[in-house]
Every structure is written in C-alpha cells, then in structure tokens.
Design a protein that fits this description.
The structure is a single chain. The protein folds into four domains: 90 residues, Beta-grasp domain (Ubiquitin-like (UB roll), Roll), CATH 3.10.20.30; 168 residues, Domain of unknown function (DUF4445) (Nucleotidyltransferase, domain 5); 142 residues, 2-Layer Sandwich (Nucleotidyltransferase, domain 5); 92 residues, no CATH class. Helices cover 32% and strands 23% of the residues. The chain contains 16 helices and 23 strands. It has a six-stranded mixed β-sheet, with helices on both faces. Strands 22-21-12-13-14-23 form a six-stranded mixed β-sheet, with helices on both faces. Strands 2-1-5-3-4 form a five-stranded mixed β-sheet, with no helix packed on it. Strand 13 and strand 14 form a beta hairpin. The radius of gyration is 24 Å and the shape is globular. It starts with a strand and ends in an 11-residue tail after the last helix.
C-alpha cells in the first residue's frame, strides 16, 4: 500500500506525533498502530461517535497549504493522502499523553531524564543515615490496579508502609473497545500483541511518572504487585483470550503468578519482581480477590455485600464461611461508555449535577485538572461520567421530566435534555443506563438470595471502585440501582483493589488469598431464571420496597 504522512495534533493544536500510515486505512487503525490514544468505546463500529477528529489534507493550492479542517469519525474515515489529524479533548487523556510523549522508550535513560530535576530518595539516604533518620532507607514497591477503563499505581516505602506517590490514568486499550468483551474480541481477531504492548506501555510510562514525581530512583524498586480483572491479566501476560470469550469461559491461568520484570514488560529498566494476584473465574478476577483481602472480609463477624461497579459489575456476599460471587454484564455505562456525551472520570467530566423542581439545571460540578471537584465555570466540561449520570437520572425522575418507564417528555424526547456546555442527554442514553442498572440490581438480588436461601438482610454493604468515589448513594437508590434499604448503609471504600495490592506488597499473605479463592462459589447469572425476571422488572424506575 502507498504510504502517507499523518501529523497528529492535540485539541490545542500542538503536534504530538508525526507518523506514517497506509493509504486506504482508517484514521483509527493508523492511530492504533502507533499507540496514539483516541477514545473508541464501541471498538470502531461507528456507533458511539466518540472518535470525532478534524482532518485537513495537504493542498499546495490553498493559502494555508491545506484544506479546511473537516470533522469526521476516525473509525469510519479512510485517509487518501498526507494530512493533519486534530484530536478532541473529550476523546483523549491529554494530561497523561503530554507527560509521557517524550519517553516512548523503555530504557533506564527515560527514568534518569525525568529525575534530573531534583535529588532522589536514594541520594538522600546518605544524609538520612548520617543524622540517624531511617524513614527513607530500604527499598520501594509499586502496587498497581489495572481496570478496564483506568489504571492506578502507588509507590510504597517497604520498611514503613508509607505511600510516597500515586498516579492514575486512562487504560488506553479503551481505543479497542470499552469493556472486556470487546477487548477479548479484538484479541481474538489478531490484536492480542497490540493490546499487550498498549498495556505494557501504559504501565511503564506510569512508573516513569510515579518515580519522577516522588524523586525516587528506579534501582530502589524491589517489588511490583498487580491486581486486575482476569481479562486484563491475560492481556498483560499475552495469554490467549480464545477460551475467555466463549462458553464455558475458561481462563488460561488464575493462579498467583510471580515473574521477573523483564518477563512481564519485555524491558530491563527495572529489576523488580512482579507478582500478579490470583483470580477466581473468567469474570471474577484478582481485583475482587484483592478487594476482599484489603477489607479483611473473611475475618469480619458480620456478612458483607461487596460491590465493585465499574466497566463491569462484580459482586460478592459472605464472610468467614466463604462467599458467593457473580459478575453482572452491566456494560460500560457507569464509566461513561454507551452514553452519547459520556466520558470516564477524567478532567472535565461532569461528576455531579442537580436539577430545580421545574427540571432546569440547578448546579453542576466536574472533575478539575488536578482531579479535585471544581465549580462549573472555571473550565468547561467535556462530558459526563457515571456519577453524573446517576445524579441526572435521579433529577429527571424527581422533576417529572422523565417518567417511571424512562421516557423523556417533549421537547426532550426528540432533542435530548440540555446541560453543561452544549451537551444533551438523549433518550438512548437513558436506555443504556436502564440496562446497566437493571443488570446490577438483578445481580444483587440473585446473589443475596443464593447466599441467604431467599431470606433478606445483608448486614454490611461495601461499595468499591472509582465510580463509587463520586457517586451519591441516595440518588443511586432513587434510580433503583440499589434497593431502598441501602439508604444510609453503604460504606464507600474507594479503590479496594489497589489497597489489596498494597497490603500484599507489605505482607505477602499468600494463604489469605488462597482461602478467598478456594472458599468462593461463582454464580452464573445468565443461567438464573430469577435474574432474568428481576432484570426486566428493574428496567423500570418505579419505586419498590424490596430489601436485600
């Protein structure tokens, strides 16, 4: 194929890459080949419309030397010549991309360049020892949580357990699809190596930034512990996903795995041992095991319902006698996928919104550049994330703009409900949410009935995950995502998967993990008649008095 040159710009018009591509290929496929992130949660089917870009072709006859920019979908636009492609702010994680764009290699020099700006902890250890201070002597470890949408990593001082740095970013595999099923399909269609390299690159680049931010030398990192769902573990290690995507959904390996850094990342910039925590099944992974371990749920006297709602909805109920666990195929709606104006909880994502009694917007908040919530007005939002969707649905229902069947009144049924800076929440967005919340709610009912033999009464409720961090649980009850008796009883525990990885980094309790994996019974919701019945019931927003 004839080669063409593509200049890639960020939303501000700054060049982030200049790459070669084959004439006749789509923009998305060229960006994927060069590991340039562009949000494509529908995996290039042209449905989500999130991969919008502006394209200008070289044109010597034009005054500017190129044609006027034209907006198009990257997954549906075939390039025919040398051009400039400008990405949109909503479709990229520019904060992470800008920070790592200069360091695409895996070499030790990439760490060194980032650390020349200040003294490292390793260099300070001499003065620490001289004054008798031992706070920062000894090695470091990195704990990692690989989510389908986001990745988090924390730097831990091993002797003291002190967290000296943390960083989060987008899992750029999202350019191959928003959920694990689309990633599995992509891997099975010849993109396994690309998905593996994408994840390896994301993690190595995050390690670069994490160590630079903490002024910590790469040579002091002794251990890395990773918790992730089963699909992410397979993709990181390059395992075939063929049996993950079809019944009976058999993973290649679920065991606790220890490898060298070179074996996992195909790089030599660190010498740390890498431990990947064990999973339970194809859809109940190491992230759930890590969460149960972090919270010590097997040692609690009371039983606990543990929920981790993200791109997928995993849940477990139990305690010292063991657990029942299930995964509800909720889709990516709670991470902003499947929503026309939806985005993950990145900078500029609307995270909270309230409506007045007349159905107009009262207040809106979004995630700021530093990750903190800022009042609307300092920097316009780029989309709405899962917690914002919860708030908006609750507000539409309470104000009467939407009925109990999820139907918007006119003119919103046709045009969508306006909010923020020119964004609209569409009727199709409500349908996507209904399917996601019905799956989660029906899953909760089904798994609790299994554990308690049909009786009600879960004593404690723990809600984990990034989505839970911002979510208003009272509004979640109003939408029917949670039953009414959850009101005031939900404990938000944050990223329990990362917390479990940190705990193992410090304590290495393999026996505790083994007890969790061996004492957990997996329920296949698809085979439960009650799940199907509950699913259709909870598509509605009608108030119910059911208690779990």
């Amino acid at each position: 194929m004839e080669s063409i040159r593509v200049e890639v710009l960020n939303s501000s018009g700054e060049r982030i890459a200049s790459v070669d591509g084959a004439k006749g290929k789509t923009i998305l496929s060229i960006l994927q080949e060069h590991q340039i992130y562009l949000d494509a949660p529908c995996s290039g089917k042209g449905v989500c419309r999130k991969c919008r870009v502006n394209v200008a072709y070289e044109d010597p006859a034009a005054e500017s030397g190129r044609t006027a920019p034209k907006e198009c979908l990257a997954c549906r636009t075939v390039l025919e010549g040398d051009c400039t492609v400008q990405l949109s702010a909503a479709g990229t994680d520019e904060q992470i991309i800008a920070a790592v764009s200069e360091h695409t290699d895996y070499g030790e020099d990439s760490f060194q360049r980032k650390q020349d700006t200040g003294p490292t902890r390793e260099n300070r250890q001499g003065s620490d020892a001289a004054c008798g201070c031992t706070q920062h002597t000894g090695g470091y470890g990195i704990a990692v949580d690989i989510g389908t949408t986001t990745i988090a990593a924390a730097l831990i001082h091993l002797p003291t357990g002190e967290q000296t740095g943390v960083i989060t970013g987008i899992n750029r595999q999202r350019m191959y699809g928003a959920d694990v099923l689309t990633r599995i399909a992509a891997a099975n269609n010849g993109k396994l190596s690309a998905l593996q390299k994408c994840l390896q690159s994301d993690l190595v680049q995050m390690f670069v930034l994490l160590l630079a931010k903490s002024h910590t030398a790469a040579s002091t990192v002794k251990k890395i512990v990773i918790a992730a769902n089963t699909t992410m573990c397979h993709l990181l290690l390059g395992y075939s996903c063929r049996t993950l995507g079809e019944a009976p959904f058999l993973p290649v390996d679920l065991s606790l795995t220890k490898k060298t850094y070179r074996e996992v990342f195909h790089a030599a910039n660190l010498t740390a041992q890498v431990t990947i925590l064990p999973g339970i099944s194809a859809f109940i992974g190491a992230d759930i095991v890590s969460g149960i371990y972090a919270l010590d749920l097997m040692k609690k006297k009371k039983d606990t319902l543990f929920l981790d709602i993200g791109t997928n909805g995993e849940m477990a109920v139990g305690g010292s006698s063991g657990f029942y666990a299930a995964a509800a195929a909720a889709g990516p709606v709670f991470e902003g996928g499947g929503i026309s104006c939806g985005v993950p909880a990145v900078s500029g994502a609307v995270s909270h919104i309230s409506l007045k009694p007349d159905g107009t917007v009262n207040h809106l908040e979004y995630v700021g550049q530093s990750g903190d919530l800022l009042s609307f007005g300092r920097k316009g939002p780029v989309g709405i994330c899962g917690s914002g969707v919860i708030d908006l649905i609750a507000g539409l229902l309470e104000s009467g703009v939407m009925d109990e069947n999820g139907v918007l009144c006119e003119p919103y049924f046709s045009d969508g409900f306006p909010f923020g800076d020119g964004m609209r929440f569409l009727q199709s967005d409500i349908r996507a949410f209904q399917m996601g919340k019905a799956a989660i709610r029906a899953g909760i009912e089904t798994i609790a009935a299994h554990y308690y033999g049909g009786k009600k009464g879960v004593p404690d409720i723990c809600l984990a995950g990034g989505f839970a961090t911002y979510m208003d649980t009272e509004n979640a009850v109003k939408t029917g995502l949670f039953p009414t008796d959850f009101t005031g009883r939900v404990e938000v525990v944050g990223n329990s998967s990362l917390r479990g990885a940190i705990r193992y980094l410090l304590e290495e309790e393999e026996e505790a993990l083994r007890r969790i994996t061996e004492s957990t019974t997996v329920i296949s919701l698809a085979q439960e008649t009650s799940f199907s019945d509950d699913y259709f019931q909870y598509m509605s927003f009608s108030r119910d008095e059911n208690a779990v």
